[in-house]
Write a structure and sequence with these properties.
The protein has 241 residues and is an alpha/beta fold. The chain is built from five helices and 14 strands. The chain has one domain (2-238): Ribonuclease Z/Hydroxyacylglutathione hydrolase-like (Metallo-beta-lactamase, Chain A), CATH 3.60.15.10. The protein is globular, with a radius of gyration of 16 Å.
Length: 241
């Protein structure tokens, strides 16, 4: 599985021959890419409806959108997507097969809404666990990546996501102000019991500018064995064999 961070919360995940783009937003200081530089993926995964997460989604409308039904409907009605996974999106707790990838949706602790002249409900904010196999207690060889979306620290990371979905790696917001900061994100790393942790959702706007070394040291202070990777924009990491 190849993971590429394009700044903010934008990730390109490749599982086998399947490409997934999560929260496409290229107006951030960590990427040198324009949306036109990026090939249309097979799937676009949207965690919630805030502009810094769906800002460039419409540039990839030939893909299949994966989101809660309310946000999937908005993507189809307003952003030009013809296809949504399952025809109507998916919902919290569900797993869908996306060609070579399996995507499990879990809630995020955040607000939601779409900033347009017309009031849209974007449903519940979410995060995704993307794996190369469906989650199962009997399959210990699966490789999976948790994109937490915009969230605060929540006990489901310890009680459900870490304990049962068992991701190998997690991308967590660390910028504070709108989401977790470094300290709470470090606790999340410990609770999730992941091998690899990636900071995201920082330095895009003044309120979320941080020193990522704070996150690295906070993870160390928890006693977690996770390796923290502070990626450069557009840098890739290979997860698993």
């Amino acid at each position: 599985m190849e993971l590429t961070w394009h700044g903010h919360s934008t990730w390109h995940v490749t599982v086998g021959d399947t490409d997934l783009l999560i929260d496409p937003f290229f107006d951030n200081p960590k990427t040198d890419l324009d949306p036109s530089d990026v090939e249309t993926p097979d799937y676009v995964l949207l965690t919630h409806g805030h502009a810094d997460h769906i800002g460039h989604a419409g540039e990839f409308s030939d893909a299949t959108v994966v989101a809660v039904p309310e946000l999937a409907a908005y993507a189809q009605e307003e952003l030009g997507f013809e296809d949504a996974v399952g025809g109507m999106g998916m919902n919290l707790g569900g797993t869908v097969e996306c060609s070579d990838a399996y995507v499990t949706m879990h809630r995020a602790d955040h607000t939601n809404g779409i900033e347009t002249d017309y009031e849209y409900s974007a449903g519940m904010p979410a995060g995704f666990v993307v794996g190369d196999a469906a989650p199962s207690q009997s399959d210990g060889d699966a490789t999976s990546f948790y994109h937490a979306g915009d969230t605060g620290l929540m006990t489901e990371m310890r009680e459900v996501i870490g304990a049962y979905l068992e991701p190998d790696a997690a991308a967590l917001p660390v910028g504070d102000h709108f989401t977790m900061g470094p300290w709470q994100a470090a606790i999340a790393v410990d609770w999730l019991d992941v091998d690899h942790a990636f900071p995201m959702h920082y330095d895009t706007f003044p309120p979320i500018e941080i020193d990522t070394e704070e996150f690295v040291s906070e993870v160390e202070d928890t006693g977690s064995d996770a390796e923290v990777h502070v990626l450069e924009g557009d840098e890739s990491f290979t997860l698993g064999d």
